[in-house]
Design brief:
116 residues; alpha+beta; two-stranded antiparallel ribbon; 4 strands; 28% helix; globular; binds zinc ion
Length: 116
């Protein structure tokens, strides 16, 4: 009997929006690095560790105004993104949640994907 259970980690592909978000995210990171250099967008002075600009392993694209998910009009809205280090991103995400923003409780994980 064949078991075809695939590992359930990080397979956001099935959600259908990842390709768009990945491309978008890449563009945001490239633009940020071109304009500001590989530094964290929150002003902490921390550096993004970039292997390749479009694959910055310590860079997260943050939604300045918290969004509830990819269906949120603000998810891709102009000017609603900043590039943060992972640690700063998770700190901000926690803060956003503690503020109790209205809307569904969606946690954005450290990798920038909603965790449910
Ligand atoms: Zn920072």
């Amino acid at each position: 009997m064949k078991s075809c259970m695939s590992a359930r980690r990080g397979s956001s592909t099935s959600r259908g929006y990842d390709a768009r978000w990945q491309a978008f995210r890449r563009g945001v990171i490239i633009k940020h690095i071109q304009e500001n250099g590989p530094v964290c967008g929150c002003g902490c002075g921390g550096r993004l560790t970039t292997g390749k600009p479009w694959h910055a392993d310590n860079a997260e694209v943050d939604h300045i105004k918290a969004v509830s998910g990819p269906d949120d009009p603000l998810f891709y809205a102009d000017g609603n993104h900043q590039v943060l280090r992972k640690s700063c991103h998770s700190t901000k995400t926690r803060r956003d949640q503690q503020k109790g923003d209205s809307g569904p409780q969606v946690t954005i994980g450290a990798d920038g994907w909603p965790v449910s």
